[in-house]
Amino acid sequence: MYDIIVIGAGPAGLAAASTAALEGLHVLVLDEYIKPGGRLLGQLYEEADGNWWNGIDESAKLYDQAIHAGVEILLQTAVHDMERHESSWFIYTEDVVFSSKQLLLATGAAESPLPIPGWTLPGVMSVGAAQVMTNVHRVKPGDRGIIIGVNVLSAAIAMELHLAGIDIAAMALPPLNRITTKHARPKEVVEALLHASYLAPSRLLRIGSKFMTNPFMRQLGITFYPKNGVTMWGVPIQLRKAVIEIYGTNQVEGVIVSTIDKDGNPIYGSEENIACDFVCIDGGLYPLTELAELAGCPFYYVNELGGYVPLHNEKMETPIEGLYVAGNITGIEGAKVAISQGIVAGYSMAIRSGKQGLADKLQDALNTVHDTRRQAAIQFHPKIELGRDIIQKQWEKYQSRLVQI
Ligand SMILES: Cc1cc2nc3c(=O)[nH]c(=O)nc-3n(C[C@H](O)[C@H](O)[C@H](O)COP(=O)(O)OP(=O)(O)OC[C@H]3O[C@@H](n4cnc5c(N)ncnc54)[C@H](O)[C@@H]3O)c2cc1C
Predict the structure, then answer these.
(1) How high is the pLDDT of residue 211?
(2) Read out DSSP for 248-313?
(3) Separation of alpha carbons 217 and 237, rounded Å
């Protein structure tokens, strides 16, 4: 019987485990992957202050901290079920059933696919897969690629592929259909992209993007966006072109792109071929919440957090006794926010275990989450603060309903 089991050895789970273990709790972390670090492992970018954020190094630091704090970590161990009996959690893995008094779900996020003709051909992958192949396993996804979907994540990953010496022929939008709408309309794409402008490789482009915060300039920018795109890190970024088909006989051989109008509709007769041997698709991220569903946690849909999220408060508690959540399962944000949420969850669980004198540390950790969010280099959703307010209000409503009952 552990005091705490954490599912997920990403930044949120490892930070929570170290925090709780340093307060004297017996903590086990379970993760299905072969390495600790979660999605942090694939990250590599230059921050606004010129320092490099290297996910492999950051993961190693978090892992070492956890081991030194006395945390047990079991990798290649997928959790597929859980139940609560008489104040204990029972966690089902393939070989062993583990038990704990408290449980933290830090399972992260998953990628949404975008259906595009030809997307089942070998050589088509999600951008996250290309990131893991390149930065974690040091395997080139191909010689010449196309990225479909222009957003904060694909922009960051295009830069990482470029740094690895992989030729990206273009980034372009997906074709407009009922599923792709927000990824296929240039205006909506520009809105979201402005939050990645710090990644722009020249000061001029960074300053240019500031002008685009004005709605009139934004419309003007889209209308006059060059038909051949703007080149960043040697990659042409096409906001007025959509990939309408991926083609090839036994594997990807190329894509057909069409020029689109400012609303995302194709202009017939403008089709052209681009040869490539791999294609990355980016349809955005959503919180990976299945285990919270199994635990019986109530859910809310909050667009600003990336989809359905388990109900939780800012101390990372859920309404289910002894169940906590932290990191991307609560909403899509960068790794630094996930770490700071993990520390909050660690203190919350330690306090619930009866550890005294932690109120100030918890308050400091809560303040750090807000500061980290405000300074975040990568912001997946421009209205993340609003999303956090919405879920906190839902929590308060839920609690006041419980009091009435
Ligand atoms: C494809 C992708 C690319 C990303 N790229 C970036 C980026 O470049 N920059 C950035 O700032 N953010 C990026 N993110 C966001 C990223 O999720 C956060 O930065 C951060 O890693 C979130 O931390 P986390 O601890 O919440 O989850 P994660 O880092 O995702 O860790 C979750 C862990 O839970 C484990 N897990 C999940 N389910 C189970 C289960 N049932 N049983 C056992 N283990 C389980 C997973 O194996 C994983 O190790 C990316 C996310 C994704 C999905």
Answers:
(1) 47
(2) -SSS--EEEEEEB-TTS-B-TT--EEEE-SEEEE---EEE--HHHHHTT--EEEEGGGTEEEE---
(3) 19
Residue 175: DSSP 8-state: P
The closest of 337, 367, 393 to 12, measured between CA atoms, is 337
The type of residue at 298 is P
241-280 pLDDT per residue, tens = 999 999 999 999 999 999 998 888 889 999 999 999 999 9
Ligand 1 residue neighbourhood (C-beta within 6 Å): 7-13, 30-33, 38-40, 42-43, 78-79, 106-109, 111, 128, 131, 153, 156, 285, 288, 291, 327-328, 334-335, 338, 378
What is the C-alpha separation between 111 and 331, in angstroms, rounded?
Answer: 13
Question: Which of 107, 127, 198 is the pocket-test mutation for ligand 1 (most atoms within 8 Å of CB)?
Answer: 107
**pLDDT mean across residues, the chain:** 90
| Cα distance between the two ends of the chain | 34
Q: What is the mean pLDDT of residues 70-77?
A: 98
Q: What is the pLDDT of residue 204?
A: 43
Q: 3-state SS of the chain: helix, strand, coil percent to 5?
A: 40, 25, 35
**pLDDT higher for 211 or 45?**
45
Q: Which residue has the tokens 């990824």?
A: 183
What the block records as the tokens of 282 is: 């980016």
> 391: exposed, middle or buried (C-beta count within 10 Å: 0-12, 13-18, 19+)?
buried
The total number of residues shown for the chain amounts to 405
In this prediction, residue 207 carries a pLDDT of 46
Q: Model confidence over 86-95: pLDDT tens digits?
A: 899 999 999 9
Pair 286, 161: CB distance under 8 Å: no
CB 140, CB 167: distance < 8 Å: no
